[in-house]
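Try this one yourself first.
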């Protein structure tokens, strides 16, 4: 993570009263043996940021069947309703250990839209619900 990214994350962390329970790092090895460290925000951390920054989200189910779901989230600041971020979240047997696909797709869409709206996604910060590998 770059210095700029660390400073921005520290500002978000402080401004939204995040704790070590809300943000963590995880190092994962790739198939070629190299490793990469990711910064992950928990669902609880996402909710704190939403509340503190007055973010609204609306959801639309884009597609669903017995074994998958795709949800679109539209996120915006309450006082800036024209600045809207849209993001998709999906869930299926290949990317989820749970079988409540709609709920998992909603969590993923929520995390992506909030992190994008506040500017963290551009620095490679992810939500813990976005991938099986991002669990603590």
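Now uncover the answer:
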């Amino acid at each position: 993570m770059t210095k700029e990214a660390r400073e921005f994350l520290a500002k978000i962390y402080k401004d939204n009263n995040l704790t070590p329970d809300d943000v963590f790092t995880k190092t994962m090895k790739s198939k070629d043996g190299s490793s990469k460290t990711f910064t992950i925000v928990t669902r609880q951390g996402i909710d704190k940021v939403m509340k503190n920054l007055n973010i609204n989200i609306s959801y639309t189910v884009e597609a669903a069947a017995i074994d998958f779901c795709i949800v679109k989230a539209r996120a915006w600041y309450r006082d800036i309703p024209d600045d809207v971020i849209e993001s998709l979240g999906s869930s299926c047997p290949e990317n989820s250990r749970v079988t409540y696909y709609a709920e998992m797709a909603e969590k993923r869409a929520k995390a992506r839209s909030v992190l994008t709206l506040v500017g963290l996604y551009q620095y490679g910060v992810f939500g813990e619900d976005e991938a099986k590998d991002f669990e603590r």
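Discussion: The two ends are 19 Å apart (CA to CA). The chain has a mean pLDDT of 90.
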